[in-house]
Amino acid sequence: MNIEMSSEENKEKNKDDIPFTKFQILKNLVAISCGFLFIFIPFQSITNLQSTLNKEDGLGTGGLAIIYGALVISCMFLPSFVISHLGCKWTIAASMVCYLLYMAANFHAVWSLIVPASVIIGLGSAPLWSAKCSYLTRMAIRYAHLTNSSAHHVMSRFFGFFFMVYQTCEIWGNIISSQVLSDEVEDNFTLTTYELRKCGANYDPGIQMNNTNLDRPNNSKVHILCWIYMASVTFGFLIIVLFLQNIPGNNEDKQQEGKLLPSLMVETFKHLWKSPYQKLLVILTIYSGVEQAFIAGDFTKSYISCAIGIGNVGFVMISYGIVNAICSLSFGKLMMYVGQIPLFAFAFVVHGGTQTALLPQQEPVYIIYIFAGLWGIGDAVIQAQINALYGFLFKDNLEPAFSNYRLFEAIGFLIAFAWSNFLKTYVKLYICLGLLTVGIGMYGIVEMLERTNKKKGME
Q1: Confidence class of residue 262 from pLDDT cuts 50, 70 and 90?
Q2: What is the architecture of the domain spanning 20-253+261-458?
Q3: b/e map 290-327, b = 16+ CB within 10 Å
């Protein structure tokens, strides 16, 4: 078996030999992680606030739905095409400019500005994340060759480190928002017991509530946030430009340079059609988008803003970010010893239990912090391990595979933000539970098929 693995790894090395040393690979890992951190400090923070900050006419969640609608389209057409022409580094850098435009649009949040800005950031997101996934996967494969390690284990560690750094954006972004908006809380926290019961799982976005906790902060504070966010995006862009080494698209990408965009969409769906693993992972990937959208849009509005005010959104989500960051790194290392199956099973128990516990009426304030932390534990497993799983299963076809990943994750975001203004919170929780259960079950089938194929290969 070791001889067969060595032969396979040599083939992979010849196919994608990146002339970087171990130090250069680790430096690039830190650079790409920090670049994404400074881009998503503002984006994650403003996403958490959108459902309350721009709640009039559904502008906040409507804009987020447009982002992920554009992302669905982008996943079909752009990633392989852009990466093949620009390489991973410059694809990431160019895509980051889209985030700067979106932050600028929030200075004066109206439909005429938010819609085009949301379309632009949605179109840029698919190449951004596909380039990141491709870059980390290829770096991990190269590092595994240099250290005679398992490529699967190195991928898990690299993605674990990336998501550890990335998830701290929830901490820093929410510290910023909570400090800027914190003095809104004292004047707003005036809920009666009857009004409090309308929050949490019972929150109905279709009913107009006389709840001052949901009032928008004054414009001067919003503008301060936007200036800070734009500075953060600019700094992240400079990190990528100055410190990340470029690698070109792989050989398959180079062959696609002259193709028309529709043919690239065909490649993405051809991968979906031909790969049984990809089809089985669709529901879990959609759940990945739905659960992130729920914590950012519905949890923040139904459980935090409604009950204790928008100024406390940052404080609660800091607990989510801290736990998520710690677990992303810890579980990446733990996977080497226990494998992915126990981690996904653990995520199922934690997320399923948390969603069930959120179904009763509004809980005391301290429980909200605990639920946010528990959600972060499950999300840490799901984000890092799904990325590592895709990188391992589809390492011979990375860009189409990760385009499918972003496509179905974006569909999850899209449907979650689209229903945000129509469904009661408890209905959304039941949908989350259903998707989680089916998704984990289908992932289990993938593991069984993979083990069967490995046994056949050894015979």
Answers
A1: low
A2: Up-down Bundle (1.20)
A3: bbbbbbbbbbbbbbbbbbbbbbbbbbbbbbbbbbbbbb
